[in-house]
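Co-fold these.
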Amino acid sequence: MSYTKRNDGRKFDEARDMEAKVGIIKRADGSAMFRIGKTIAIASVYGPRELFPGFLQNPETGILRSNYDMLSFSVNERKRPGPNRRSVEISMVTNNSLLPALDLSKFPNTVVDVFIEIIQADSGTRCAGICAASMALADAGIPMRGLVSAISVGKVGNALVVDLNKEEEDYEDGATDVPIATMSHNNEVTLLQLDGNVTQDDMKQLMNMGIKSCTEIHKIQMDALKEKYKGEIDE
Amino acid sequence: MNNSMKEYIVSSLDKGVRMDGRKLDEFREPVVIETGISKSAEGSARVKIGETEVVAGVKLDVGEPYADGADEGVLICGAELLAMSSPDFSLGPPDAQTTELARVVDRGIRNSKMINVKKLCVKEGELVWMVFLDIYTINDAGNLIDASALAAIAALRSAVFPVLKDGKVQFGEHTKEKLPLVNLPVSCTLAKIKNHIVLDPMNEEEKCLDSRLTITISEQGHIHAMQKGGEGSLTPEDISAMVEIAMQKSKVLRGQLP
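Predicted complex below.
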């Protein structure tokens, strides 16, 4: 049960190498790519735009509609195209993780659509998707209180780790996986899921590790956004 | 598409110029083809034609052959017009445009006999390789069909077999053996707008075209698939002219395949 050394040589609190890019899909109002290790997520945003059918419209505020899916060849064993129970749930928790950072009150009766696709999967796909989506929303010019950054933390054997890869997730009879998302302006948590087995003390530590890691991701996201708008900011 | 937009496009075409400055029979440049874009796939590719972007991936598995091809592997080609790639696309089951895209690409590969399906037989009547080819649009700036066909071909060309042990695929373990490919079908799509024929239509042209013709051509210069689209008609002269342009351009595109 003792996991003393990570299979890819990382420190326990070290995330895989990351890369972020904003403005990758020209047709969209906002778009971004986020890569962490071998996991690659892309996201695009359309809106605020008119919402159909009309009964879904809210005269008080715009609504957010997020959709997460994986390309059929993004995993080792082909995934059947189209939504499944897993992707439906992830779409919902993704939506809930992004919404607190947005202010859609100025856009009543409209919808902001977020589309997330996983190109290549090696664990942490929902978190990578949230990171990409958050940058895409900013790129689309949606009013935001802060960026949303997400990372998965967890317990592999007896070790608490940041950013589990696939091999760690499948370690012995399974690791504990805790995806966390925080908002950059106040470090409040907007995504928290857990499956596995941890103590109360573990959870406290995991929380701190997750929040710390999200702060680092936030910087990478900001840099990617600044990179796209460089000329405009400098002037 | 409003009428004034169409009038503008047609009046430019009368002068021999397109909205993006291309000549009528000019493909967008550069055409960028990149392979190995998803390591989880047995083969994958990304194709950019101007701002149009499409990805395709190949997954391989084994299964029972069809009764009418007991010693032949199976190709299953699917496509998804991702809602992320255009404000005109939405989530949900495949619509007619999606189905057409997948079927036109599929027909080009199948009819040109690009894949030697006999070599995909593991045990006659019992076990054959199944090739799942999936196409996804990332950004729709026009002419998704040609971009998809190119991405499909490039993905198939880059694909390697996974390890097969006791009749089961070891997912994630790849061999170095490539697919048995014998031909390279490339498609070219042309649009007729009023009395003008344009190659590689962009969004605005697609929205106001009268008819469209996709022609898939093999290395030998044989035509293996055609698909007429749009609500208008084509004269036999139009078709001859379109085929002539496609013959020339398909050679150039084939030369750009990695």
